[in-house]
Amino acid sequence: MSNLPRHVAIIMDGNGRWAQQQEQPRVKGHERGAEVIRDIVTFASRHEEISTLTLYAFSTENWKRPKVEVDFLMKLLNRYLKKELPIYLENNVRFCAIGDVSGFSGKLQKLIRETEEKTAHCTGLTQNLALNYGAKDEIVRAVNTLQAEGRVVTSESLNSALDTPQSVDLLIRTGGDHRLSNFLLWQAAYAELFFTRTLWPDFTSHELQSIIDRFKSVERRFGGL
Ligand code: IPE
Ligand code: IPE
Ligand code: MG
């Protein structure tokens, strides 16, 4: 039996380098990257084996970037959410933000919540967008939630208190680096990891399908034989 890519997670890296290669400002890479998100979400929504797609858009560490780049990313997120809502609805995609969105402006938080509410009835793909997300922060917030509720910390209770409880089957990083950069450390405990040198703005659904094909033939043992 081949593996099913039920939960696919992607570290969308390489936007800045893509722009620099074309002698354009880094932000042009983010703009192009946002268009690729649309293609990949649409592809995943039509892929019968994928039920959750989690995309890493902004990490808890990305605040260290120059203010102009951070400001641009916030504006782009605002534009993206407004533009994508009809696409989500058309493709029956439920949008969920993961991460600490309280770090964003009130206006952006409202838009994020509205996008979640307006797509809450969609029963196809669940698309998690990781925003001000860090796996360490997620785990600490989950432990604090359990403590505040007076609950014992177990693997199950902690799992259920996370922003997203689903374990990742296939984790992909574009852009050529081989690291997780604080993404889904808990959920990816047994994920299959695939790294591609393709920069995110050049990533296509065709390449995603070819990674899925390779993933399917891996023997996943989960510690057994
Ligand atoms: C990923 O692309 C997008 C974000 C982290 C927001 P980068 O901006 O990290 O692009 P590179 O890695 O510098 O090329
Ligand atoms: C990871 O990319 C975060 C996102 C893709 C949102 P980074 O470019 O921030 O990661 P590092 O700094 O190279 O580890
Ligand atoms: Mg990067």
Summarize the structure in words.
The structure is a single chain. The two termini are 15 Å apart. Helix content is 44%, strand content 15%. The mean pLDDT is 98. The protein is built from 7 helices and 6 strands. 37% of the residues are buried. The protein has a 6-stranded parallel beta sheet with strand order 3-4-2-1-5-6, with helices on both faces. The chain has a single domain (7-216), classed as Decaprenyl diphosphate synthase-like (Undecaprenyl pyrophosphate synthetase), CATH 3.40.1180.10. One 3-methylbut-3-enyl trihydrogen diphosphate is lined by residues 12-17, 58, 62, 73, 175. One 3-methylbut-3-enyl trihydrogen diphosphate is lined by residues 11-13, 56-59, 62, 177, 179, 181.
Main pleated-sheet profile: 6 strands, parallel
Number of domains: 1
What gap, in angstroms, lies between the N and C termini?
A: 15 Å
> How many individual β-strands?
6
Could you name the CATH homologous superfamily?
Answer: Decaprenyl diphosphate synthase-like
CATH class bucket: Alpha Beta
Which structural class do you get from the secondary structure elements?
alpha/beta
Which ranges are low-confidence, i.e. pLDDT below 50, for 5 or more consecutive residues?
Answer: none
Radius of gyration: 17 Å
Q: Give, in spatial order, the strands making up the sheet with the most strands.
A: 3-4-2-1-5-6
Helical content, roughly?
A: 40-55%
Q: Could you say which small molecules are bound to this protein?
A: 3-methylbut-3-enyl trihydrogen diphosphate, magnesium ion
CATH architecture: 3-Layer(aba) Sandwich
Encode the helix/strand succession as letters: EHHEHEHEHHEEH
Using the alpha-carbon principal axes, give the shape: globular
User: Helical segment tally?
Assistant: 7
